[in-house]
Amino acid sequence: MHRICLDAFDDVEGWRTHARRLAQAGVPPEAVLWQVGDAPGDLFGGEPQALPPATGRPLTVPKPFITLAEQALLHSDPQRFALLYALLVKIAANPALLGDHADPLLRRVESMASTVRRDIHKMHAFLRFREVQEGGVEEERRPRFIAWYEPEHYILRANASFFVDRFAAMRWSILTPQGTLHWDGETLTEGPPARREEAPKGDPVEAAWQTYYSAIFNPARLMTGAMLKEMPRKYWKNMPETALVPGMIADARRRELAMVAQAPQAPRITRHTLPQDPAAALRLLREEAAGCRRCGLCGPATQTVFGEGPADAGIMVVGEQPGDQEDRAGRPFIGPAGALFDRALAQAGVPRDRLYVTNAVKHFKFEQRGKQRLHARPNVGEIDACRWWLDQERAILRPRLVIAMGKTALRALTGQNLSIGREAGQEIMLADGTPCRLTVHPSHLLRLPSQAEAEQGFERYVADLRGGLAGLEEPLRS
Ligand code: URA
Question: Mean per-residue pLDDT for 16-22?
């Protein structure tokens, strides 16, 4: 029995070194005992056995396996090192296994990796710093921010660079039961595990933040089930704004009714009035959207152009707004941009009828020039008003991947004005943890000045679409 002692619960590098050497020497998974630290972990303890000598035998595994392993190894499951080694041995012998999602071991590891990704995202979203003023010499009296957080998995170190990048100019400490991180504006240091009592509670910033949060809270958008799913109660205690949530939920119905009374033409649909069956829920939503008056675009447009595609599509594609032809036909992406989109999908090998295709804004915005209706870009108010429908479509479909085509789609999905530019082909994570692949809008390609640029742009667009689909385990649900 080989007893492998790793340095830390998140010692991915150590696992990698040992796993490679063991696999190259042909050591079977059942002959390896993995543990953290060097105290004999169980009955089979004994002295750690030296690694088998390097054989120099090549060991190659597909790159996606490495990414999968790096994530799954941060899971708190005590079996994680053994499971990943067993999977490594299987995949080294048969790389095609990585595409076999019926394989129970692969499925288990993929599920662990996805749980870890979610935990990482939750830490980004729910960690809250509190300001503490420290005494000492003048230059030391800069404020310091401290956060207490309890991750479920071993993600503290993996998240360090995120917090350093985001709060580079602050002095902060993150205290967790796994360990602590301290940033002084220049250097990151690690410390031992902390206890909750060591973190401060409440500060003046907190009161302002609570006021802000209760002001932006929109009772008509309250989805208690989704809220609890995305922001489980256990995170509430560390977040100042969530102290207000129970009261706001209790008051939500009264405030919702008041809002509806003030805007009698606003559709009154809420997620809890929708049927459970996604196809039925989408049908109902489409009917509601047909009468939408959330912004002024409904006046000049012919009709609402709602999303189209199966309710169980794993992938949702979001464009900007319908064009002239879409407005007349009531279907998304059937005009010139749609033709290019279809051509790109065909080249990427993706049948369109298995995607859910929708737009950020559901009415055509245009300027009338003589007989022509010229496309006009929707403004932020229109995008944000229409976001209601997109959010509902996402809540019903729960896609595993969203593809954002262009800046308007990205604004509608993130609430932020970001351009796609060089980010095309990249993936970001939306606030609810859904991966979102960025690409250009097909109309952009139609406007490129030269044939050569158009061809090059088209190739990149196809690659963006194809790349997004390749990253999924089952690219398309049938
Ligand atoms: N452009 C879009 O963004 N959507 C359409 O439906 C058509 C063109």
Answer: 93
